[in-house]
Amino acid sequence: MFAVSSIRELARRCGVSVATVSRVFNTPEVVSQQTRQLVLGMAAEIGYLPNESARTLATKKSNMVGLVWDTDHRRPGWRHPFLQDILVALKGALSAHGLHLLMLAPDPGAGPGDPRRFLRAVQRHNVDGVVIIDNGSRDPAVLALADAEVPCVALDLRFTGPTCTYITSDNAGGGRLAAAHLIERGHRHIATITGPAGNWPAAQRLAGFREALTEAGIPLADGDVVTGDFYLDSGHAAMTRLLERDPRPTAVFAAGDEMAVGAIKAIREAGLRVPDDVAVIGFDDIEVAALVPPGLTTVTQDKTGFGTAAAESLMAMLAGTATPPEPTTLPTTLILRGST
């Protein structure tokens, strides 16, 4: 961080007051173009950067966006590859608008059951907006942000309020794509490994999958629907259960790629082949999907689109729109590989 004297040095070299230099960086519209060019040119020449803390005090804006990442404490949510991809896309999109991303922990002064623990963290750090990635738990501390007067954008969580909107994928459409592809390949006994109960995207994927099977006149028995948690181990355990059915399914739709990879592992351990004995299709198109043999057919989500849409929605609210932007639903597409 530059010392206070650096702004004085910049002002001295430009022959203007310190207040004028401050206005150039904080309220440039009140300074003449000639003065702005002089100050900015000299700043670049001597390597001056404005003090962000001082700028925050002057503009009442921090250029910080808080990230509330409420993954289930029982699962290593930070390591999930799809969420990591979303985080990278989000950070890049916000950076393009000059915004910094700050990961928010619950306020240390609030107890674990305090419904204000995230709101207090938002207020403590004076962030301009909030992005929410939730595990579907409907945590009251997350829901409390909907009533706060801070712009909020939720990812894959139906989140509404006076300054809130959300970004999601066409999860139901993706479920239909998966089912339609397996039906087209001639499968008639198709099972599914779903996401956790209460998770909105998982429910949408299952609904679209069921719909396509129903339209094709293909039954989905209760025993052919097994719940997972989006992680590899749950996919392995669910597939092991499905292989015990008589007759066993000839194809499986896993609502997440990690679960699909776990399912492939279980199929191989049973001495069976993918896709000859059991075809497998996933959802997300994480990096490993193209690497696991024989290559995982999957429904892909627009991870870059998540970041771009979130940043644009935040920018619109920060610009003072009367109402928050409409929720954004991103398209899903089918990626064909060897597992089907």
Automatic annotation (TrEMBL):
Keywords of this entry: DNA-binding, Transcription, Transcription regulation
PROSITE patterns (UniProt xref): HTH_LACI_2
Superkingdom as given in the UniProt entry: Bacteria
InterPro entries referenced in this protein's UniProt entry, alphabetically: HTH_LacI (IPR000843), LacI/GalR-like_sensor (IPR046335), Lambda_DNA-bd_dom_sf (IPR010982), Peripla_BP_I (IPR028082)
Domain HTH lacI-type residues, every copy: 5-59
Pfam families: LacI (PF00356), Peripla_BP_3 (PF13377)
Name under which the protein is recorded: LacI family transcriptional regulator
Protein species of origin: Paractinoplanes deccanensis
Source lineage: Bacteria, Bacillati, Actinomycetota, Actinomycetes, Micromonosporales
